[in-house]
Amino acid sequence: MNKYFLIIALVFFSTNIYSQTFGGGAMAGLSTSQLDGDNWGGYAKAGLTFGIYTNTKINKYIDAQLELRYVQKGSKSDNKDQSVFYLSKLNYIELPLFLKYRFLDKFSASIGFAAGYLQKSTEDKDGIGDEPADPPFNEFEFSGLAGIEYLITEHLFFNVRFNYSILPVRSHPGEQTSWIDKGQYNNVLTFTVYYQIANFGKK
After folding, report:
1. Segment 23-56, tens digit of pLDDT
2. Which structural domains are found in the chain, ordered by start?
3. pTM higher than 0.85 for the full model?
4. CA-CA distances (angstroms) from residue 23 to 107, 156, 202?
5. Measured between alpha carbons, how far is 155 from 166 in angstroms, rounded to an integer?
6. CA-to-CA distance for 108 and 21, rounded, in angstroms?
7. What would the DSSP string read from start to end of 70-115?
8. What mean pLDDT is reported for the chain?
């Protein structure tokens, strides 16, 4: 995984040097998620996300952006029957890379992908306490992403992003699969505020 992160970063920063226009900043926000395939529906698991980013202009309307962020994912039962309980906590270090297209003056639409490393995973299947996930989750995740961003001020942005696993993050218990159901997938919405600390180079 580290070598893939390095290759992506080198390609991105090479683009920055060529364009001679780049910027960077920090972001923080909230995540809400579910684990498709675990029989618990709804974005019931809340978490945090934060990190840093750098971006560069490709042309008048399109930017490329690379991020390094921490994001909490997982799943939580949303059942009025108190005897039924489930909670999974998945903490990822993630490297999203995507393009942003600016439109309507203050809006941007983004699309891209992310590579993630699972830093920690636990499950609580009875409400008593967290235990190591069983069966275990995959160490790495690859996901697609799409989002909408709104420019609040010159340096402040608000972003809503949808993120979904391209490959299963773990197999079903018993490893049963079908041709369209290969396992469990992270399904995540994030709501994030970005602060652009600096812009460098010629515009």
Report:
1. 889 999 999 999 998 777 788 899 999 999 999 8
2. 2-201 (2.40.160.20)
3. no
4. 18, 13, 11
5. 32
6. 18
7. EEEEEEE---S-TT---EEEEEEEEEEEEEEEEETTTEEEEEEEEE
8. 85
